[in-house]
Design brief:
Number of domains: 1
Distance between the termini: 45 Å
Largest sheet: none
Shape: flat
Number of strands: 0
Low-confidence stretches: none
Mean pLDDT: 84
Number of helices: 2
Structural class: mainly alpha
Helix content: 40-55%
Strand content: under 5%
Length: about 60
């Protein structure tokens, strides 16, 4: 499947198969920590996950 076909098929995904923004942020934070560890240990030259922004959740901390 080409990238353009994948992007075009995103609209056909049902809401039952989607994850929440909080869950996606949890995965992004986990990947950041994992690649940061790999960076410190010298396994990777750069942490590319730092360029992925966190998603807005609508939840504000007071």
């Amino acid at each position: 499947m080409t990238i353009s076909a994948i992007i075009n098929s995103i609209d056909t995904i049902s809401s039952d198969n989607m994850i929440s923004n909080q869950t996606a942020n949890k995965y992004i934070k986990w990947l950041r920590a994992l690649l940061n560890f790999a960076l410190v240990m010298g396994y990777v030259p750069v942490n590319i996950v730092l360029s992925i922004p966190l998603l807005r959740t609508g939840y504000t901390r007071h």
